[in-house]
Amino acid sequence: MQKKGEKAADIVIVSTGGYPKDINLYQAQKSIDNVKHIVRKGGIMIVAASCREEYGSDVFGKWINTYSTPRERIEEIQKHFELGGHKSAALAMVQENCDIYLVTDMEDKLVKKANMVPFHNLQQAVDAALTRMGEKAAVYVVPVGGSTFPVVAE
Predict the structure, then answer these.
(1) End-to-end distance of the chain based on CA atoms, in angstroms?
(2) Coil, strand or helix: which one is 102?
(3) Which pLDDT belongs to residue 123?
(4) Which whole-number Å values give the CA distances from 4 to 9, 30, 128, 139, 149, in the listed order?
């Protein structure tokens, strides 16, 4: 399904759509990639994904753990393509545009290693985003990010 908004939002709240789309960060990245076009540069994406299997892919996890910053992951994939690592680089490209708050069951240290801000409660993530972006922030909600491709009207 494709939906059009008038402009990029300050805050985008996205759910992966539940199991199995939220089983790990490797799978949740698909929803992140689908909604990246509707969050403005410098905005915040709030992702609701259980990630009970943590990173989900050994290769993806290796890339998260090996490279400290999103920029390092992007530069390395350009030099050395590796299946699984490519999803780490795709995530990194989104992170260069906006911050990601991950509402998850994952341990905070794993979320932080992936250069995201950990939350375990959606309302707390929304409150933090509104505090940072302002009470009048434009907010979009995408309830099934893995099956929705929203775009901003040109």
Answers:
(1) 18
(2) strand
(3) 98
(4) 12, 19, 26, 14, 9
